Amino acid sequence: MKAARIVLEYLKRSGVKHIFGIPAGSVNAFFDEMNEMPEITPIVTKHEGAASYMAAAYAKYTNQISVCIGSSGPGGTNLVTGAANAMREHLPILFITGAVPVTTIGLNASQELDAQPIFQPITKYSVTVMESKNVLEEVVKAVEIAISGVPGPVHIALPIDVQHKQVEAAAIPAAAKRNPIIPDLNVIKETAKELVTREHGYIFAGQGIRNSVEHLQELAEMLNWPIITTPQAKGYIPEDYPLLAGVFGFAGHESASNLINEGDGKVLLVVGSSLGETATNNYNANLTKDRFMVQMDFDHTVFNRKYKVDLPVLGDINLSLLFLIEELRALGLTRKAVKRAAEVKSDAAGDGQEYNTKNVLLNIQKYLPVSTRYTVDIGEFMSYVIQYMKVVDTDSYNINVHFGAMGSGIGSAIGSQLAEPERPVVCITGDGCFFMHGMEILTAKEYHLPILFIVMNNARLGMVYHGHALQFNRTHPSFEQEGINISAMAAAMNIPSFRVTELRDITQDMIDNLLNGNSPAVLEVALVDNNVPPMGDRVKFLSSFGK
């Protein structure tokens, strides 16, 4: 069989059901072979960048290897942003790029590019395979690297002729399995003693808690400590959970900020957060000031980056929490009924009648299914989502403040829907994001994915506009854009759509009509909101560089 086919056979055995990307001459062997492999569906996108974010969400919500493919040259470089994002998010993605024939390397062949060194710093492994006999071995190696230890992306470049060459039949290896990182029991015992001795503190939860929410809640109830989440962890702890104190960091809540800046907690127990800029409100020193700091993570490189860690706990989060709970039980602690630690307070309140971003989002959410997952794009609306939208079900928000590109939420919605077809998915995006990757609504249509795309259309780059207005007291005229009727664009593609121009346009019947079908729909919100977005201290941080 062809080398490309043996790769696909291994991926099939590894549970791969979709491959995201765009066909082209330098990767045509893969797409041709998929004609004979109904178990794997190629998701042909409109842009490789969108494909990479689809693959990221798919990896995240299936908890398995995801595959993304691009042609040599520009197709491959279009995947670079997604690879960097996957590295940041610890997502196991196999990026395959085509390459010119081995015999033409160095001869300025069409779309020739040495992709290996480009992907090297943003993946766990990057290699160009020059001989067909080595292809399967290298793919197996790459996948094992991707899922092992701290998961992350890997990259393999395959010249056209290498893909097409016949290889000897070989036994297809079993799917790679990840071995958990087991925490040191002595460190767990020491942690338990410190927490009991110091009694009062806060749990600071990042997105690493995603598969460990029940354990985290049990720990919080044993300690009777409030849980503060990062923006990326919004959606993991239900809003009505008594010990939830809100979001700290970018667009965070006043209640959480008060605890960090003025609270008397003597311990900060960080669980699954790398304590980056957006999670810490621009590296706020009050997080650890006069506090004993414990940090739990499966990535040792996050320890002592910006904040001194008194007690690092290395291991998979679910195991570290489970072991810690057992040690606390041994010390006499039990799970107990708890009272609300603090009312989650937003920075601003509206009367509910003004046609503004906050009221629009809350009114739309009121009419959507409780189980909806929201994939949130990059724009001023993101701060409103973090600050105001409700958490009514588990794992209900996909927010990528770390490395989300404009338009990434659109691809994430498609990846999420493919990963969990039974769960309703709503993408909250903006006109600027839509103009980058909005044509992926056609991808959703072609694969019959019932995603609702909410497009906040203010005819400007909203976050840029408000950021400049606050930082420099002026904005450049180019930030304003010509107003475009996006719902009409959707209608031209035979995609159901509706255009909201006032708050009373949002009704249950309207939402139900858009959700009633086996295809995507577009809900455009035409709204210029001149209220200052609840971005927290982000503007202060940026302003410090202009003085």
From TrEMBL:
Residues 1-116 form the Thiamine pyrophosphate enzyme N-terminal TPP-binding domain. InterPro entries: DHS-like_NAD/FAD-binding_dom, THDP-binding, Thiamin_PyroP_enz_cen_dom, Thiamin_PyroP_enz_TPP-bd_dom, TPP-bd_CS, TPP_enz, TPP_enzyme_TPP-bd. The keyword Aminoacyl-tRNA synthetase does not apply. It comes from the Bacteria. Keywords: Thiamine pyrophosphate. Its cofactor is thiamine diphosphate. Residues 188-321 form the Thiamine pyrophosphate enzyme central domain. Belongs to the TPP enzyme family. This is Acetolactate synthase. It comes from Neobacillus kokaensis. The lineage of its organism: Bacteria, Bacillati, Bacillota, Bacilli, Bacillales.
